[in-house]
Amino acid sequence: MPRPFPLPLRSLPFDPASLLPGALRQRIAARLTTLQVPDFTLPAGLARLCARLPQQPPTHALTLLLNLALGRILPRDTLEPLHGRQLQVRVLDAGLTLNFSLTDQGFRPVIRAEAPDLTLSARSRDFIALALREEDADTLFFSRRLRMEGDTELGLLVKNTLDAVDWEALRMH
Known about the structure:
Keywords: Ubiquinone biosynthesis. Belongs to the UbiT family. Pathway: Cofactor biosynthesis; ubiquinone biosynthesis. It comes from Parazoarcus communis SWub3 = DSM 12120. With about 170 residues, the protein is an alpha+beta fold. It has a domain at about 55-170: SCP2 sterol-binding domain (Nonspecific Lipid-transfer Protein, Chain A, 2-Layer Sandwich), CATH 3.30.1050. Helices cover about 35% and strands about 15% of the residues. The chain has a five-stranded mixed sheet. It starts with about 20 loop residues before the first helix and ends in a 9-residue tail after the last helix.
């Protein structure tokens, strides 16, 4: 049986930021609120290498994150139309193609990928900016930095769900 971590971060008896002097803490907080993901593209060689590697480990990581969010910030009832449909996320500059589906047990990797019902493609920087709410899906889509292929109804459902997510629910208090 795996041993749990000795003390989860959420149960620390103090705020780690309180260890910093007041002025430094305020400067760091101010910088973090204005921090933006720099514009970058991963090297082409990395994409060629990653494309040759098994795609299951990063797909498992993605589905784990999605399942952690499912029911907490991703409402199950809203995602019902995704049930049984194959989704694909392509991280273009990383050479990753992640195939997964929503089942009764949550998001699961698809082992034998067929033609996906919906494919979302972008650079890693754009997916990070989307997750951090620096940019919204519409901006990325209309600037051709996020591509959606396949079932447009599913694409709109995913986009609207991402827009409605309460990201503040993930913050530690």
